[in-house]
Amino acid sequence: MRRIAFVDRDGTLIAEPPDFQIDAYDKIRFVPGMLAGLQALQAAGFELVMVSNQDGLGTASFPQETFDGPHALLMQLLESQGVRFAEVLIDPSLPEEKSPNRKPGVGMLMHYLRDRNVDLAGSVVIGDRDTDLELARNLGARGYKIGEGQWDWPGLVRDILGRPRRAVVERNTRETRIRVEVDLDAKADPIAATGLGFFDHMLEQLGKHGGFALSLTCAGDTHIDEHHTIEDSALALGQALRQAIGDKRGIGRYGSAAEGESAADAVDLVLPMDETLVRASLDFSGRPYFVFDGEFPRERVGDLPTELVPHFFRSLCETAGLNLHLQVRGDNAHHMVEACFKATARALRQSVARSGSELPSTKGAL
Q1: Which residues are known binding-site members for Mg(2+)?
Q2: How many domains does the chain have?
Q3: Which residues are catalytic?
Q4: What is the residue-wise DSSP string for 156-179?
């Protein structure tokens, strides 16, 4: 989905003069950090849209021709540095006219509100007035106000691009009540409480070897059997992972390093556990697909039916949008199940690791 940075002009991109009108070339002064900030947002995948109130533009007190020249120079200077606005929206009305197009009104932005491909919750509004913050609330976006005692450009860009990848998901049905919390950028002892001891141990492996903070609690109908608890836990966890990962910019995407090899040389992750060997290949592609190759030598390990192990991973893939190939060979069912969870966790750890801001896809979306 598209993320938009709705950016004010005067006081945000260029300093606002005492008469509030930038109607001459010598009035153009860049706000410190603005250019680098726009470049960083654009590089991170934000579309830039300018939204500006220009009181009385086109009237005798603010002729259109005195505005056009300085504004064209501003846009030319920005474009010369690779900064391009997808749209420039300017409302010339006066406050007393109460135009729906005037910020904080959303009249000029209705096409973004109607576009289901725009992620408004992941979008931002950047301005220098309280009306810009109110516009953000009206859009359902995050708002940043520039000024003394408020945000500066370097600070707001760090906050926008460095936000922790967290998610909380609650899934309540007639069969289970589940709460999952994940933080992909934090390390903490995993917490799992589902009423199934060995399954809890496996969920702990995902958090521990996946390198992220995980808490999953489930009150399920285990008096009937284990199926609903295991399946719904996987669905909720997958949903949380998908929400936390965000737009996937900068992630590794693939879990593709084998033990003792560099990621560049390996094609999958190979994890040994005594007599057991597991291969896991993972792509955080957004397209769910699961392939399992293996047979467990007994029907249960503790309170976990082994037939539900591939079902858990298939359900996880469905809601997380993962493509996972999992192959297991061995004689000890405990080792085989545990190695499956550890190998998947290690592959997941590599796929979600951030190393930049580029989107790891030629499609332009992932």
Answers
A1: 8, 10, 128
A2: 2
A3: 8, 10
A4: HHHHHHT---EEEEEEE-SSEEEE
Q: In this predicted structure, what is the pLDDT of residue 366?
A: 60
Say how far apart CA 1 and CA 366 lie, in whole Å: 9
- Report yes or no on 364 lying in a domain: no
List the one residue out of 40, 44, 6 whose CA is nearest residue 123.
6
Do 8 and 76 belong to one domain?
A: yes
pTM above 0.70, yes or no: no
Last residue within a domain, chosen from 135, 161, 187: 161
Please choose, from the candidates 42, 41, 32, the residue with its C-alpha nearest in 3D space to the C-alpha of residue 12. 32
One domain for residues 84 and 191 = no
85 and 140 fall within a common domain? yes
Residues belonging to the binding site are: 8, 10, 128
Backbone angles phi, psi at 109, to 5 degrees: -115, 15
What range defines the domain where residue 26 resides? 3-161
Longest dimension (CA), the chain: 88
Domain stops at, among 112, 133, 161? 161
pLDDT means over runs of 10, the chain (366 residues): 93 90 90 95 93 94 93 96 97 95 96 93 94 96 92 92 86 96 91 97 96 96 94 97 80 52 47 91 91 96 96 97 94 96 92 70 60
